[in-house]
User: Fold this.
Amino acid sequence: MASYEELFGLYSDSAFRNRVEIAMLSVAEQVRSEAETTANHAKRLVWARNVLVDPAAWLLPVFRLLLAANKALDASAIINAAEAQIEAQILGAVDFFATE
Assistant:
């Protein structure tokens, strides 16, 4: 289990932040391409557009969510997560972020 200090230290891991940003962009594209019949599609589409237009504005909230959601893992497991795992967690949180 990562300590709070270790989790906070991941904020400065630029390679991991870059991976999260690219995963977030990939998820935004998946949402942009999803069927219009997807639940909450209109709000999800707004979120996806906002992410694609200004990913820097969304990186920190998504990054924080990933850290909190994975706090039971050790820091190395978090930063070495497979791309598919990172994307799946972000995709699972889209409705949380797609509220406006």
Helices lie at 4-9, 14-33, 41-53, 55-69, 75-79, 83-97. The CA atoms of residues 8 and 19 lie 17 Å apart. The mean pLDDT is 95. Residues 14-33 form the longest helix (20 residues).
